[in-house]
Amino acid sequence: MDEVEVVVAHSERATLRVGEVFLKVDGDRARAEVEARAMALAPVPTPEVLWHRPPALAIAALPGRALGRYGRPSTASPAAWAAAGAAIRTLHDAPLPPWPGRSADGLAAVLDVECAWLVANDVLPGGLVARNRRIAEAALRPWTPVFVHGDLQPSHVFVDGEEVIGIIDWSEAARGDALFDLAVLTLGHRDRLGDVLAGYGAGPGLDLDVIRAWWVLRSLLAVRWLAEHGFDPSAPGCEIDVLGAARL
């Protein structure tokens, strides 16, 4: 009998691996439904959905290895990162999913709450939070919505050599800002942004300052959630490092 491996587990969801099957259990049935629907619609490689019985989703394991992980150096080649950029472009050029995503106004309201919490709980100095809040504002502008993955960490992109063979964890997929996906992919590997953009290609609205603003905005919004769910946002190269390195 195959052993059961706990891949990740917290109060919102858990992922178990049994042999070549991943079993995801999500307390939010709507989020699990989005994941299954997004993988069916996305024009990029995704895991095979074996069955879906809310709140559980069973998917086949992918071969290959993750492009990278936050807090660790990536050993993937520049060509592999460029291939990830090309896959993202394919996703962003696809028809929009039928459900909406978050708005700039909605994100601004959440950002205010999170910044206040960071200061009130002495998680970060007030001056550091205020400086990053100003940088983050550049991301809160009107954007043309595209089909975004919504949580495109490099650990969610699987490659075999220089080929993307699968992208996992689609529960945050929606309509959104293309630059957000590019920022999440490179947040912990900011030196790889050039490789990603080489594969993604040029186009209107491709603003490096906005990508940097999304690095900051995503970090400000993530610190509390990560800390409260057993993750460490202060690990080298991760969210708090991003905030400390940000410059106006």
From TrEMBL:
Residue span(s) of domain Aminoglycoside phosphotransferase: 36-214
Superkingdom of origin organism: Bacteria
Gene3D superfamilies (alphabetical): 3.90.1200.10
Pfam families: APH (PF01636)
Official protein name in the record: Phosphotransferase
